[in-house]
Specification:
With 67 residues, the chain is mainly alpha-helical. The chain is built from two helices and no strands. The protein starts with 12 loop residues before the first helix and ends in a 9-residue tail after the last helix.
Length: 67
C-alpha cells in the first residue's frame, strides 16, 4: 500500500500555473460556443415573450354593467 507523506509546499500555486503552457483555444471554436450560448438565451427569451402574448390573448375583456 502506498505511503502518503506531507511535504511543505515551497512553491506558490501562481508560480506553478505560470510555468504551465496550456493550449490556446481556437478562436473559431470560441465564437461557435458563444453563438450557441446566445441562441439558448434567445430561445428562452422568445418563449417568455410567446407565453406573454398567449396570456394577453386569453384574457377576457371586462364588461361594464349598465346602471
Amino acid at each position: 500500500m502506498p505511503e502518503f507523506i506531507n511535504l511543505p509546499n515551497f512553491y506558490h500555486d501562481s508560480e506553478i500555473l505560470n510555468n504551465v503552457d496550456l493550449p490556446e483555444e481556437d478562436q473559431t471554436l470560441q465564437i461557435q460556443r458563444t453563438l450557441k450560448e446566445t441562441e439558448k438565451i434567445q430561445k428562452s427569451v422568445f418563449s417568455l415573450e410567446d407565453s406573454e402574448e398567449i396570456r394577453k390573448r386569453r384574457k377576457q375583456p371586462t364588461i361594464q354593467k349598465k346602471q
